[in-house]
Amino acid sequence: MFYQTTITLPIVRLQGLLTLLDKVEAQAKIKWMTDAEVLDLRLAPDMLSFVKQIQIATDNAKGMASRMAHHEIPSYEDNESNLAEIRARLEKTIAYLETFAESDFENGLTGEFRSKWMPGIKLVGEGYILTYGLPNFFFHVVMAYAILRNAGFDIGKWDYMGPGLVFLPDVE
């Protein structure tokens, strides 16, 4: 269960973000938008920017996997200043997730999450993944998509879904 929820699902969604970037990079040039303008896009003035949504989504992905496998979480600097660096961060996170094997999660039920913004409490195992880890990860992935869509980029649900869909012929 932990391999699928902390490796398979996040990889597919991160690949979806790479698909979005393919279109955004091309369309930003047509719109005469700089990378800095794209990275600073947001839905509301008090909302985190597009770049921050990507940073948090990748932090969540590597954090979920690392916690459930009892590995040290790699640290990223959060200093991306252009779309190529965002792409590199997504690719680096996918590559990190691909280093895990199902056997790494044998003790996943005891993996713990603690946060400075929730002092005095912890989330453990399945409770962490299902009630906080995955919902938070998906929130930031969807916000990144929504920010781009709201800014007028020609992207749709299939771009968000990415290349990882598993279609089977329906022949009965």
The tally of structural domains comes to 1
Characterize the biggest β-sheet.
2 strands, antiparallel
| Spatial order of strands in the largest sheet | 1-2
Low-pLDDT residue spans? none
Q: State mean pLDDT (0 to 100 scale).
A: 90
CATH superfamily membership, which one? Answer: dinb family like domain
- Shape, principal axes of CA atoms: globular
* Helix share, percent: 55-70%
User: How far do the termini sit from each other?
Assistant: 30 Å
Rounded to the nearest angstrom, the radius of gyration is 17 Å
State the secondary-structure class: mainly alpha
The fold-level CATH name is: Four Helix Bundle (Hemerythrin (Met), subunit A)
What are the secondary-structure elements, in order, as H or E?
HHHHEEHH
Report the portion of residues in β strands. Answer: under 5%
CATH architecture: Up-down Bundle
Number of strands: 2
| Count of DSSP H/I helices | 6
Strand and helix layout:
Layout: H1 2-30, H2 35-39, H3 50-69, H4 83-97, E1 112-113, E2 123-124, H5 125-150, H6 157-161
Antiparallel strand pairs: 1-2
Helix pairs in contact: 1-3, 1-4, 1-5, 3-4, 3-5
Descriptive account of the structure:
The structure is a single chain. The protein is mostly helical and 172 residues long. The chain has a single domain, classed as dinb family like domain (Four Helix Bundle (Hemerythrin (Met), subunit A)). It has 6 helices and 2 strands; from the N terminus they run H-H-H-H-E-E-H-H. A two-stranded antiparallel ribbon has the order 1-2. The radius of gyration is 17 Å and the shape is globular. The mean pLDDT is 90.
